[in-house]
Amino acid sequence: MNTLDNKLKQIDKLQKEIDFIRPLNIDEIKQLKEYYRSF
Prior knowledge:
mainly alpha
């Protein structure tokens, strides 16, 4: 659970960084989160 939380925090951080370049759409965010959950 703890590692999942860390991954999700990383995604949120990454998402904020990417938002400066181009906002992610909701589907892309879902895909990213699913990708990290698969580990």
